[in-house]
Fold each of these.
Amino acid sequence: MTGPRWLVPLAVAGALLVALPLVGLLARANWGDLWALITAPASLEALALSLRTSIAATALVLVLGVPLGFALHGLHGRVRAVARAVLLAPLVLPPVVGGLALLYAFGRRGLLGGPLEDAGVSIAYTTVAVVLAQAFVAMPFMVVSVESALATHGSRREAIAATLGASRTRILARVTLPALGPALATGTVLAFARALGEFGATLTFAGSLAGVTRTTPLEIYLARETDPDAAVALSIVLLVVAVTVVAVAYRPVAGRAVR
Amino acid sequence: MRSPARVVAAGVVALALGGCAALSPDSQGAPSTAVTHVLDVYAAASLSEVMETLAVGFEEVLPWVDVRVTYGGSSDLAAQILEGAPAAVFASADEAQMAAVADEVAGEPVVFATNTLTIAVPEGNPAGVTGLGSLADDAVVTVVCAPQVPCGAATATLAAHAGVDIAAVSEELSVTDVLGKVASGQADAGVVYVTDVPRAEGVEAVAIDGADAVVNRYPIARLKRSDFAEIADDFVAYVAGAEGRAVLAEAGFGAP
C-alpha cells in the first residue's frame, strides 16, 4: 500500500534531511588516511575504552533491565503508567541533564557518592563512572523491549507449565525467556549502541582522561577542533556501528514470524 | 590613538553618508531608534559576562544596532567561522585561534586584553591547596583543560615552566567544564583563568607564583564576511579603546 502521490516529494525531503548530513560526513573523510587515523594511538585508546565500557554497561543493563521489565509488566493501571514514565525518561532526557542527575547521585558530594567517598570508595573520574552513565541512558531500551514483548506474549504457556508442576524459576528459564529471545536481542543491541554513543552524561559526570574516561564520542569532540580528519574517521566508525545496529535491531518483522 | 567616542562618531557619520537608507527606512533626519542592524560577535567563553557589558555599552552609542554575542571555546568558534558561520567580529582567547582564521580576517587583529592562570578551589579550600605544587599530589583531585584547547595549552606551558607535573584526573574540553567540576565539589582544584573565579559561585582562587610567565593575549578582529564593515570596525575600536579597557579591567583582565 502506498499513499497518495503528493506524499512523494515530502518523503524525498525527509530522506534528504536524514541522509544528506551522513553523506556530508562521508564527503569530508580523508579516505586515503582513514585506516591510519582510526589506528592512531589516541583513536585506538578511545575505541578500546568505548568497547570495554559499552560491553560492561550492556551486561549491567541485561542483568538489571530484564527483571525491571518483568516488574513493570507486573504493575497495573496508573502505578504502571507512572513507573514507566519515570524509568523510560532517560530515553528523551537531554544528556547533560542526565549528567547532572548522575553527578548529584554518585558524585563526590552526591546522595550516594558522598557517603561512599567517606568510606573510601570513589566513583568520579573512574571508568566505573563511564559505565554508570552509559547504563543510565541505555537501560530504557531493555526495559521497554522486555515489557512490550511480555505484553504481546500472554501467559497461556506459563499457565500450562505451572499446572505441570514447574517452579517459577524453571518457567522463567525454560518457557518465558526463550520466547522473549528476539526482544532480548533487540534490547541488547540497542542498549549497546546507546552506550557506545553516550556523550553528555559522561562529559558532565565522569570527566575526560585518555584511556580512563575519554570514550570515542569525547575524543571526537576534542579532536574535531585540532584534528578534524581524525574526528571524521572516528565518526565514520560509529556511523557504521549505528547503521549495523539498526539493521539488526529493526530487521524485517516477517523473519520474527507469528507466535 | 583615536578616542573611542571619535571613532564611533566617525562610524555614525559614515553610516549617515553611506548605508543609512538601508539601516533606517524612515530616516529623514535623525536616525530611527528601532533596531535595524544585527552585529554578530563571536567571543571566547571566558569573555561571557564582560562582552555582555560591552555590547550594552555599544548599543547605547548606536541604538539601532543589536549586538548579538555567541560564546564558545575559541577553537570551537574558530572552527565554526572556518565552516562559514555568519560572524562579523571574532574575539579569541588566544592568538593561535585568531591565526587559524587569518584568511577570514579583515585587517590586523588587535590585542585588547590579557589573562593569566590561577587555581580555582571550592569555597574553604577543602584539600588545602597552596600553589601549583599541591596539584602534583595524587590526593588532590585536580582537573585541567585538555592541551588541545587554549586554557590547557597555557596550563601545560605554565606547569612545564614551574617544573610541576600536574596529576590531573580529567582533561576537560573547556575552561567552563573545569570551573563546573570545582564549583560542584567534584574536584579539589582546577586551573582556570584569573577572570573565571569571580564569575563562579562557591569558588575561590589560590594564586600561582610566577603565573605572569604565561600570559594569554586576547585578539579581536573584524571578519571579511561582515556586511556592515563600519559598524564591525567601530565595535572592535570600542572594545579595544578606553571604554572597553575600563570594563575589561573591572572584570580582572590585564592590559594588552
Amino acid sequence: MGVIDHQASEKAALILLSDDDASVRRSLHLLLRSRGFGVLAYASGTALLLDPQMQSGDCLVVDYLMPDIDGISILRQLRSAGWCGPAILITAHYADTLAESAREAGFAAVLEKPLRDGVLVQTIGEVISAGRRAGSDHC
Amino acid sequence: MIEGDKANRHDAASGTILQVVESAPNYAVYALDLGGLVTVWNKGCEDITGWASSDAIGKHHSFLYCAEDVAAGVADRHLAQVEQLGRVEQESWRVRKNGSEFLAHLTTTALRDETGQLSGYGKILRDTTDEAATKEAIVAREQHLQSILDTVPDAMVIIDERGLITSFSAAAERLFGYSEADVLGANVSSLMPSPDRERHDSYIGRYLSTGERRIIGIGRIVVGQRSDGTTFPMELSIGEAGHRGYRVFTGFIRDLTESDRNELQLKELQAELIHVSRLSAMGTMASTLAHELNQPLTAIANYLETTRDLLVDPDAETVAIVRDALDEAAKESHRAGHIVRRLRDFVARGETEKRIEDLPRLIEEASALGLVGARERGVRSFFDFDPAASPVLADRIQVQQVLVNLIRNAVEAMAQVAIRDLTITTRRRPKGMVQVSVADTGPGISEQVAPQLFEAFVSSKTDGMGLGLSICRTIIEAHGGRIWTEGAPNGGAAFHFTLMQARPEDEHDA
C-alpha cells in the first residue's frame, strides 16, 4: 500500500496552484501531491497564465492578494482563455464583500487562511465532483 | 605516439560516460562553465525541466531558480560555495520552463583540470517532489496515530515477540509512572509483580510455540506494578498484529483500582440491602407462619389428647374413633410439614445464575481485587490449585464476592502479626464437590465467636454490620455448597467452602 493514495477510480485531478507566499505554496504543493493530486504550482499568477499546460488543469487554487495580479483577475483571464474548471480562492483577508465578488467571478468556494486541517482537500473534492455533475457550466 | 594513445583512450572513456549520462532519464545531468553558463545538458534535463538543450546551452543557470532566489543572488552564491567546499548537496525548489515549481535534489561538484585549476561545475539533479510528499504523508499519518494514542483513555503498550516494549502511550506513562523513554526496549515483565514477572517470557514462548491463546483476544483481570513498586488490579486485553518473524502484541490496559473498587463496594452494599430486606421479610413471614403452624399443632394436640382419654377404657367403637382421630392428626402434621417447606423455599430463593467457570481464573481475578494494597502491607500470597478441581458451576460475580470478602478479612486479620502469608487452595472432594480454602497466619478466631460467625449481625469488627460472612453463607448455600471455618495448621484462621464441580454434560446448559 503506497502512502500517496492515488485516487483509484479516476485519473488523478490536476490542481493549478498559485500563491506568492513560498511557504504556503510549497507546503500546499506537497500536501496535495501526498493526497494523490497532480500539482502545477506557480510563484506568480502571471507565470500560471503564461503556461499553456494550465488548460489541462482540473481545479484552480489561487491566493487573492498577489503582487502582480489578484486571484479574481486570474480566474477572469482563465475563463476568457476558455478554461472551464472549478476554482477555489484562498485568502488571509476574508471579507463578505470579497467572498461575494469572488462568487460572482465564478469561484466555487472561498477559504480563509490559515487553512484548517483537511478543509482544502475536502473542498477540492467537493467542487470537482459538483463540476462533473453540473457539466462544464463554470464558463 | 604515446601521447596520442592516451588521448584516444581518454576520448573513448568520456564517450562512454556521455552515453551513461544520456541514458539516465530520471537524472538531469548538466555542467556549467566558470561563469555559470550551461555547457552540457542531457535528455534527463529536458524531461525534468522542459528546457531543450538548444534552449539551455549557453544560458546562465539562474533560469532554473525561482524569481525570488535570483533576486536574492542565491544562484551565484551557490557556485562560490561549491568552489570552496568541492561538493555541495542540497534540496531546494526550482522552476520548469512552464513556470511551475518542483522540489529538486541537487549535487554540485567543482570540476578541476589536471593542474587542479577550477574549470567548471558538474550538476546532477533529481525531482524529489513526490518523495517529499510521501515523507510528509508518513509524518502526518504518524502524527495522527500519535494524537490518537495520546488521547485514548486506556493505557496502551506495544511489545515485540521477545516481550520488549516498542511503544508506550501517554496514558500508560501516567498509569505506570514511567516515561516512554524509560521503558522503550525494556521487557514488559517489569510492569508486573511476581510471579508473572518471572514467567512472562515463558507465557510468550508458550504462545509462539503452541498458538494456544490464554489471554490474547480474550482479556482478563491481572495485577500491574507501578514504577514505585505499588501494585494495582487492571483489565488487560491483548491484540496481535504482523506476521512471520515480525509480530507485535498490543496491550490495552484499564486501571480497575477505582472503577472496580467502587463497583464492588456498590455490589456489596446492594447484597447487604437485599439480605437485610430478606431477613426482615423473613421475620414477617416467620410470625405469619408461626400463627399458621399453631393451627395444625393445636389440632394434633387435641386429637392426641382425645385418643389418650378414649384409650382409658377402649371398646370396638372407641378404637374406630381413635383410628379416625389419628388419621386426622397425621393429616395435620403433614400440613405443618408443608408450611415448614414453604418457609425453606422462601429463604432459599436467590437470583443465582450459574455457569461453568474456570476456578483458578475466577480465584485469580478475585485475588487481584481483594489483594489491592496488600503487597504494600507486606502480605505474601500463595496459590495452590488442584488441576482436577475445575471447572465449577458458579455465579462468578457472587463467588468472587465471597472470595474478596474472605481475602479482605484475612488481610485485615494479619495487620498485627509479623508473618503475613495468605494461601488459597483448591482441592477436589468426593460427591462431585470442589473445596476452596482461604488460610491466613493471623491470630485465629476465638472459640466464643466461631459458632455464630456466619449468623447475621455478628461481628468482631467495630465497623462491620456483621453481614459479610452471613451473605457468604447465603451465596454458597444457594450454590449447593457449604461454608465453614477451622483453625489453620500454622495458627491462623482458615475458611473453607465447597462448590459443585461442573461435569462435561453440564456444558449444554451453560
